[in-house]
Write a structure and sequence with these properties.
This protein is an all-alpha fold. It has two helices and no strands.
Length: about 70
């Protein structure tokens, strides 16, 4: 399993979707629920961090356009 920081944003989202699907399944492995929740939390944190960074960068770029 790749480190969360090494995943692309698309890979992280795909893994989150996979975890969610597994958790919603009637055959969810209760013994893995804690580790799946921990991994999902790490993925969400990383995605949020990247979205926040991208938002800040885009605002900076757009602010530069207004200055010209």
């Amino acid at each position: 399993m790749k480190q969360v920081s090494k995943l692309t944003y698309s890979e992280a989202i795909a893994e989150l979707e996979s975890i969610l699907k597994a958790m919603q399944s009637d055959q969810c492995d209760i013994d893995r629920l804690t580790s799946m929740t921990r991994r999902a939390t790490d993925l969400i944190k990383e995605c949020r961090k990247r979205l926040t960074a991208t938002d800040a960068e885009l605002k900076e770029i757009l602010a530069g356009l207004q200055e010209q």
